């Protein structure tokens, strides 16, 4: 590993360790800790499907080390070591949480721990809901395994006749995509009981295999994670959507990148399965416990015990938006910065609804990347078309793991008469933009919404994001230019305020950093405060090292991947960095540059990763309003003082908490209280 660069895949595991720390933290309410285990597990699944899969592919290229700057094989070995070590911590936390739940009269039991009433309930549930969904596959010596579903869980089953030791093996997919993973059982002595769907199936296995004469049936959970990276060949004959639909089919056949199994599984059964899956010494094979797919804990049933959950934070009405009054008029008076989830996402839905019925609004243009399951954004857009507005949506088909949903939404919008543009060939559209055009008395006025996160009301409840609403012509005219580019990709206009990836952001970042270097060398005050999700781009990192060496004070709040080696004398002693993991996912992206006292502040949809700088359409937007500038600076300062959920991002990836003797500050609670006071 280079001394001045941490491979992004390794730094990502360090981020996921911070999620695990929240599951371990006794100050976090108990059922929220269980959710953090679910988030950790879900994150890890995606990590293997994408990051590990990509590294694995790179091992087949001779010059991979030159491309990456580090050795993919060595990195994969390191990943295996870290993941196994984190897995031990995970299992210990899980076992502690189960004990704590029991103290709180909540019990997760298995099929052998049921009383009479619970057994009767499960027998009935198995017959009415489960049995018909079970389709076992018999594993014969000469047969190939069926194409196993990525990230599903299976029971590997051993059927045995005790007397003769005659054996048969079978595989059975647990239908947790159509049935709940946790079934709430009848109470016992006023205590709550739950059972895994896996164990409901174990309870009824004899019935499933009634055709065979075996007297012992045991089942062990396995799970296979596959390569999910989509490859779209440059084939101009087939349409973009056809190619995407085909590559989604391809994903189902992806190469295995991780295999997890119940460590109690008999050696002969394990050997049979790994052999049939063609797993070799380079594959990540992880022994686990009885249950896998802990991501299902993210949807653990609500058992009505308030003290076991976070106290809900009710979103605060924005001070410049009056209920029942026009939001378009409010934006006309002044720029408004919404901050989710502290402000309600309903403000944006209300804006779209108002635009859809305002007689003077002529058009709405919007980018759509990830949408809520039941999207009010889509409903408002379809309503606008019905009311005679011209509506254009730029739908990104390559929003990872949301591709199928986005194809369906795109078709639905088209059927209503919405103009749908499917991204930009060769570039992913990650910008978060909406533009409303209103014409009254021959005067055209444009209203723009520019955000750091998706127009998605589900994630807006749990992700922190900023959304700027503005009428400022310097910005709205350039947002129009971006939409012109979506209509005709050969139109390259000049931008004087908005910074567009992949055309200008890299150069702009280098100029902004060089400006601070120049000021530091002239003994002027020079600093940069960056709040981002990830920073991994080598060129930008080298420039930040140069700035640190010139005496620029650099503060960073980074949630996820952080490839910088911070605080090293002679290299990066002026770079300090923290990462915050708390009840809301930190997702806002904004940057503050001293600029010799005349601060420049930007919000952005982009992280400082090569993909965001060079391979995506991203928009970075300057903030002109002085009050909003103060607000963003205050947000950064509060987060920088966090000493309950902030971890120091150091070269050792130790994830030590920021501790000091000052009064306890939880930045998310503090920000909520300040907005409430306003």
Structurally, how many domains make up the residues?
3
- What best-fitting shape do the alpha-carbon axes yield? globular
Low-confidence stretches: 232-238
Average residue pLDDT: 92
- How many H/I helical runs? 18
**Which class best fits the helix and strand makeup?**
alpha/beta
Measure the end-to-end span: 48 Å
CATH fold-level name of the largest domain: polyphosphate kinase like
- Helical content band: 25-40%
Overall description:
The protein is α/β, with parallel strands linked by helices and 678 residues long. The protein has three domains: 8-308, Polyphosphate kinase middle domain (polyphosphate kinase like, 2-Layer Sandwich); 334-495, 2-Layer Sandwich (Endonuclease, Chain A); 500-677, Endonuclease Chain A (Endonuclease, Chain A, 2-Layer Sandwich), CATH 3.30.870.10. It has 18 helices and 26 strands. The strands form four sheets. Strands 14, 18, 19, 20, 21, 23, 24, 25 and 26 form a nine-stranded mixed sheet that branches. Strands 10, 11, 12, 13, 15, 16, 17 and 22 form an eight-stranded mixed sheet that branches. β19 (527-532), α15 (538-550) and β20 form a beta-alpha-beta unit. α2 (30-58) runs antiparallel to α4. The longest helix is centred in the first third of the chain and has 32 residues, at 72-103. Mean pLDDT is 92; it is low at 232-238.
